């Protein structure tokens, strides 16, 4: 049996906040003056977003959002991808949708009306490469179950859920709806996204993981917060009991991938250049998800994740500038 383009299986379908990123380099003192939590995602309203934008100065603008960055990474590896995320029928929404179309990523989510503007994330990057996110969710916040394309979800080998989208109740319902529709041959992956996000939603995250999640992504702080564990090793053991696969990033400490039967450690490249950490976790997830979709072993999946993360932190912005497919050739 041959599949048409619309029927063919997709390696990954991402589900998240569709945003346009505004990236700006700033000094530590700037973050302190704002009173923002460095390295965290801070939710702001439309007025606050406009005020911050006035302070930005020189900047780079790219379409993004965490899960969108991940599926773009999968695409760069040569994988096939789709995306569920709501933008407005405005100029920024046109930019976002055009980017997805140009890359060949299926994006069928209905547009919001123009009075509900496309969300944007103002990202301040300090000299150590750490990023502080100030996010106005805009139209992405209004995603509903009725916006979910079940045909698209049904084509996914892996459905990738973004924890940032867990805040709005209707979006939370839509994520559960999509996870329930994945089908017997698909798997559900979740990224915890942010430690403060975990603290807001610990109980319901655990319920979602128990009911639907096969693959869990987190950094060491997020996974410890999820399980309220003082030690990382304890958190990893608790994750092992709950999820088929847990992938945890530890910055310069590399990453670990854990199943019931395997514990795989991936060392970070000590020579990796750090310019901007925006998208590092997103691209790590892209490499691991691509590897899982293609049936690779855990070590290769982790290596692909590390390779993608190291590429994206070496330059400004959350997307790869070099073909990850070409870079991955060194792992063949």
From TrEMBL:
Domain Carbohydrate kinase PfkB positions: 50-319
Matching InterPro entries: Carb_kinase_PfkB-like, PfkB_dom, Ribokinase-like
One function term, GO molecular function aspect: kinase activity
A matching Pfam family: PfkB
Keyword vocabulary terms for this entry: Kinase, Transferase
Family: Belongs to the carbohydrate kinase PfkB family.
Name this protein carries in UniProt: Carbohydrate kinase PfkB domain-containing protein
